[in-house]
Automatic annotation (TrEMBL):
It comes from Streptosporangium saharense. This is ABC transporter domain-containing protein. InterPro entries: ABC_transporter-like_ATP-bd, ABC_transporter-like_CS, P-loop_NTPase, Type_1_exporter. GO terms for molecular function: ABC-type oligopeptide transporter activity; ATP binding; ATP hydrolysis activity. It holds the Pfam family ABC_tran. PANTHER family: ATP-BINDING CASSETTE SUB-FAMILY B MEMBER 10, MITOCHONDRIAL (PTHR43394:SF1), ATP-DEPENDENT PERMEASE MDL1, MITOCHONDRIAL (PTHR43394).
């Protein structure tokens, strides 16, 4: 007789229910006539640039980020709070794709996550528990970012991809991200000074709209409300 742990049924049911909810949402969206579909809202972003979004109230910059869906090509939101399904690390990173190990290691390098792979006994074949329960917050965050990078979207929309990292790892990741995404659009809602220092443009959001824009240095000099975000 085949014996299956109850936890497997619970986890399977959770994933199936999530999939059904997502499918219904997509179906409802596609069922709308073109003129009825919600139009993307938000500031204009120059294609091929690295842009930072920041606000004294982080939920405002995140809301604005979610409105940036008007680009041609694929957009991908790498939300650090999104669900992470169980499986081997390789499967988690691949998502729905079929990337080879060389591509996986490139994405892992950009996300400064080589130590995550090296620290797991079986490397890419190590089993990741549901929602990354056997990973630390910083490891979990970098695995998510590596998975997003592996998909190579033309437009990458990321929410706080470095909030759980130490300063050294954050600086390393930001520099690699800048190089790896050169020529493709990357928009990040964050409060990370290292990322803003690398960004082509920073948008300061206040009361749900862009109140000021410029480089990090320009905004630090010209906008008191922007300076106050960093203490």
């Amino acid at each position: 007789m085949l014996v299956v742990p109850v936890s497997s049924f619970i986890e399977g049911g959770f994933q199936i229910s999530n999939g059904l909810v997502a499918a219904r949402q997509v179906t409802r969206f596609l069922a709308l006539r073109a003129k009825e579909r919600p139009r993307p809202a938000g500031p204009e972003i120059v294609p091929g640039t690295l842009v930072g979004l920041v606000s004294a109230r982080p939920e405002e910059s995140v809301a604005l980020l979610e409105g940036l869906g008007g680009f041609d090509g694929t957009s991908l939101i790498a939300d650090h709070d999104a669900a992470l399904f169980a499986g081997t690390l390789r499967e988690v990173l691949q998502g729905r794709g079929e990337a080879d190990d060389e591509a996986i290691h490139r994405a892992v390098h950009v996300a400064a996550a080589q130590d995550v792979v090296a620290g797991l006994r079986h490397g890419l074949d190590a089993v990741i528990e549901p929602d990354g329960r056997n990973l630390s917050g910083g490891q979990w965050q970098r695995v998510r970012l590596a998975r997003a990078l592996l998909a190579e979207p033309e437009v990458l929309l990321a929410v706080e991809p470095t909030s759980a990292l130490d300063a050294h790892t954050e600086s390393l990741l930001v520099g690699r991200l800048r190089t790896a995404r050169d020529g493709r659009t990357t928009v990040v809602a964050t409060t990370s000074p290292p990322l803003f220092a690398q960004a082509d443009r920073v948008l300061f959001v206040e009361d749900g709209r862009v109140a000021a824009s410029g480089t990090h240095r320009e905004l630090m000099e010209s906008t008191p409300a922007y300076r106050s975000v960093f203490g």
